[in-house]
């Protein structure tokens, strides 16, 4: 938490270590300081790690760490949503997912991705929208339901089902799509749809 901010200089120094495991631990420590950390340069350092580190696990950890820093970290990551490269955009979505409901202001961009982007970014968008939860619902529920019914990628369909479950009551208007997915050709989509149906039905009954 914020009390760990005193260790930030040591963690920042470890970001240049030769061992990727050390760099990843340092990145996770910086993210663990959470919202409210006042240590200068943390967001910039994590953004650099997200974009430049040679190890994909470190880049992913840096994205999650940015999301846990609250609005400053989320804003830094969101600057990559319009990147010309797919990987930074996907990692920006990872950061927004880590931010949860605090990322609600970016739900519209992620919802557009559900229509316009290739399957890896559609998958990242669905996962982020689910993590944002009800705060994303006014604009995202319908797009997720369409992806659940129509997407050619089974991983996107599964993520859309999970996300609809995470939207809870806000997805109650899309039960038909969830029920239809119980007969999906992929068993993982079926399982995700069954779990989503239970979550949405329970939330709608409250």
From TrEMBL:
Domain of life: Eukaryota
Signal peptide range: none
Pfam family, one: HEAT_2
UniProt-listed Gene3D superfamilies: Leucine-rich Repeat Variant
Alphabetized SMART domains for the sequence: EZ_HEAT
GO-annotated molecular function: oxidoreductase activity
PANTHER family according to UniProt: DEOXYHYPUSINE HYDROXYLASE, PBS LYASE HEAT-LIKE PROTEIN
The protein's name in its UniProt record: HEAT repeat domain-containing protein
């Amino acid at each position: 938490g914020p009390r760990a901010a005193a260790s930030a200089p040591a963690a920042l120094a470890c970001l240049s270590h030769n061992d990727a495991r050390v760099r990843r631990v340092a990145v996770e420590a910086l993210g663990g300081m959470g919202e409210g950390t006042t240590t200068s340069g943390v967001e910039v350092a994590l953004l650099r790690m997200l974009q430049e580190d040679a190890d994909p696990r470190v880049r992913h950890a840096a994205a999650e760490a940015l999301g846990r820093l609250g609005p400053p970290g989320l804003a830094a990551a969101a600057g990559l949503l319009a990147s010309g490269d797919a990987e930074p955009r996907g990692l920006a979505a990872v950061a927004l997912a880590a931010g949860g409901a605090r990322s609600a202001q970016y739900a519209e961009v992620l919802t557009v991705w559900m229509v316009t982007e290739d399957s890896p970014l559609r998958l990242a968008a669905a996962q982020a929208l689910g993590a944002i939860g009800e705060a994303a619902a006014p604009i995202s529920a319908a797009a997720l339901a369409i992806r659940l019914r129509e997407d050619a990628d089974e991983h996107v369909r599964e993520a859309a089902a999970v996300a609809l479950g995470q939207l809870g009551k806000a997805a109650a208007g899309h039960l038909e799509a969830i029920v239809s997915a119980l007969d999906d050709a992929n068993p993982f989509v079926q399982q995700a749809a069954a779990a989503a149906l239970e979550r949405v039905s329970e939330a709608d009954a409250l």
